[in-house]
Design goal:
Helix content: 40-55%
Shape: elongated
Radius of gyration: 22 Å
Oligomer: single chain
Order of helices and strands: HHHHHHEHEHHHHHHHHHH
Number of strands: 2
Strand content: under 5%
Largest sheet: 2 strands, antiparallel
Bound molecules: zinc ion
Length: 335
């Protein structure tokens, strides 16, 4: 039937859900092939439809990274693939990923390049890395789709089609991104420096602590008290329902980094750079767009907004290591 060499090669950094979709488009399983030959009316009543949907399945399920999902196992069987091979190619490069229900980020340039190369807007797994709001290839901040497409079977194609159907939205986004380019450069420097520190961790415990220290800073910079710093950002959408909004401060504190867009996370890293003293006031002042009045340019301003919090101080102390810790925070004594 199928063998691996007849299937399209995974694109560099491609997510499993994207590759599964491409494989099925190019070499459909027998059920899918049978279905494509019948009329819309017959399809609705066909007994083949239910198993077909079951085969594609996974609406809302994480078909990028949850390799034990029944939909993925069915796929490996249908195409005679080993699960170990799937894991070795499609595992994420970092432990902190954005949950499937909040995925929204992408790089338009990457999509255009993959269309030119393989004829599909490929969806990349690195777009789901929580601590990497920049494109790994182009260095630009990831854009976000605000349509609720996350559980689409072919997310990449849907994002692309949505973008093509909404050119004004894309234009507005690229104008904003251009205006904010200096702040973004500083954010990218912070992201890279954190990445380097993580690579220096000598064991898993230290690595986790550094990661958690950064996560805590990310959460601090996303506290509602600091939202003035994001006033100029378009698409500061928090993906939330009534459930979430009615929750109190603590779940908000923990979940906001997962729910905001890539652009917002990129700005958080700029604020983290101030807190760590990696960006000084002069650099910050020069980078700030002229009309972005509420964007902080010093750590002391941020600490003042956070206010006195024993809880936050304790968490930061708990995750401190020689690589990254409270002693390195700028104006820590203000806090
Ligand atoms: Zn890119």
């Amino acid at each position: 039937m199928f063998n691996q060499s007849s299937l399209p090669e995974p694109y560099p950094d491609e997510a499993l859900s994207s590759w599964m979709y491409r494989v099925r488009e190019i070499l459909p399983e027998p059920e899918i092939r049978a279905l494509s030959g019948i009329s819309d009316h017959d399809r609705e009543t066909s007994p083949l439809v239910a198993p077909y949907l079951k085969v594609l399945g996974g609406l809302g399920a994480d078909l990028d990274f949850r390799f034990e999902r029944p939909e993925i196992l069915a796929f490996t069987q249908a195409y005679d693939l080993s699960l170990d091979w799937i894991k070795s190619v499609f595992s994420p490069a970092s432990a902190k990923t954005i949950p499937i229900s909040f995925r929204s980020d992408y790089c338009l340039q990457c999509m255009e390049e993959s269309i030119a190369e393989v004829g599909f807007p490929v969806y990349l797994k690195s777009w789901r890395l929580l601590l990497k709001p920049f494109c790994q290839k182009h260095g630009c901040v990831l854009q976000s789709t605000n349509a609720y497409l996350y559980d689409s079977i072919d997310f990449g194609m849907d994002i692309f089609e949505h973008g093509c159907a909404n050119p004004h939205e894309l234009e507005r986004e690229s104008k904003w991104l251009a205006k904010d380019s200096e702040v973004k450069n500083l954010s990218r420097m912070v992201v890279n420096r954190i990445d380097f520190l993580l690579s220096q961790a000598e064991d898993a415990v230290v690595h986790d602590k550094v990661q958690n220290f950064v996560m805590t800073l990310l959460r601090i910079t996303l506290m509602p008290k600091l939202w003035g710093n994001y006033s100029s950002i378009i698409k500061f959408t928090v993906q939330a329902g009534v459930d979430f909004e009615s929750k109190k401060e603590i779940p908000m504190f923990y979940q906001l980094p997962l729910r905001v867009t890539g652009m917002v996370r990129a700005r958080s890293f700029y604020l983290i750079g101030l807190l760590l003293g990696w960006i000084d006031e002069e650099q910050a002042g020069n980078a700030r767009p002229r009309d972005d009045f509420y964007l902080a340019t010093s750590a002391s301003t941020l600490w003042r907004l956070v206010g006195n919090s024993t809880r936050i101080r304790t968490i930061l102390q708990l995750y401190s290591t020689e690589l990254l810790g409270v002693s390195m925070l700028a104006d820590w004594e203000c806090f």
